Amino acid sequence: MKVVVCGAGQVGTTIARHLAFEGANVTVIDNDVEQARRAAESFDVTSVVGHASHPAILEQAGAQDADMLIAVTRSDEVNMVACQVAYSLFSVKRRVARVRHNGYLAPIWKNLYGSDQLPIDVIISPELEVANGIMQRLRTPGAFDVVALADRRVQLLGIHCNTGTCGAYGLRIRDLPERFPSAPMVVLALVREGRAFVPAGDEVIKRGDDVFVVTTPAALAGVMDAFGHKEKIAYRIVIVGGGNVGLNLAQQIRSRSSATSLKVIEASRSRAEFVARELGSSVVVLQGDALDREVLDEANVADAETLVAVTNDDETNIFASVLAKRSGCERAITLVNKSSYEPLMPSLGIDVVVSPSAITISSILRHVRHRSVLALHTLREGFGEVIEALAQPDSRLVSGNLQEIGVPEGVRVGAVVRNGEVILPNRHTRIEPGDRVVALVTYTALKAAEDLLDMKARRAGWMRRF
Fold it and tell me: What are the tens digits of pLDDT across the range 287-300?
């Protein structure tokens, strides 16, 4: 498979690294010489310096025989034009573009992206997806990661094991079902002292672990309670940052419940006035610096149940969250772009870290995986993915029960959905063709997972389906 990636920023280089690791022929385009050079030196990819929408640059990058173009530059317009040029001049089969501006995303303009207009197959909107991701976390307080899968029949949860009331401390993974019969779950991964791994059945839950589990919506409260989390849904919320993420999030919160007390802090006067007009009188919009104690006091963060910091500046988000927690705010959800900051967050008292690049990367990878992959969520940088896949009739996955087929090390099947019913599997569970399978696949086990799930066709040119 040959892929042209337009943009060598954090998202573009991470996508390039993923694809190169999996054996794809990847060329990265960026008009910044240094970023293009770093991409070529760091990963097994080719780099081209220039504007990604220019035909000559795309030709130099090999668009004429590319299977896919992924446009994730900083400019919506460059991304859209790159897709148009790739389609019109080079007949690139599949085109993905990151589009940020709300003006391009309004439902009334959806026909703009048809093959006879702007031929973009998949539009990724990071701000909207980040807002949706934060909204899911607000619905499940206590979880630092929440992903709905299989038409919301399955929930993936990331939970900190850090409370004094956690009943799972000292229990082996295999003993959790017996200890918590009303909270069925499958543990996919543990993160301990910064190291992520797929635990064996005799692995013991320790204080300070982060655990990723799969469960059903009906069992969600019981699972959270098993790990010592009894937080209630917040109805007093302060949002720091009135950009596209903050505005989208505020609109979702307002539509969820009229009983929620919602305040937005925005530094720019003109933007604050715009947000106030968009949200109406039911939301208080304050113009000012979120690091100013007087502004935080005016927003009454001391009585807030949750502060959500989503400005474009990591440092502002981090320090606003720290100040809010020290003032008495119960919970902080913080948007952080720089992955190097993430290990510091727990020591600062920040409850949930949201990575826009991780959310965007998950969205894009979902569209470059094999056709049987219906959804995808990355778990920690460089560790693995939780996928939702359709069991193929000729795959080894359906040739016996899970014990008989030999699930590879680094792969953990978390749930099976059959005829709308969720099965949390054990070693005797047999998967049938057409089942939806939710599984963790570590990157070290990717090839073995392909063989198991019948995804090997990707390496042999599966892009021909487009």
Answer: 999 999 999 999 99
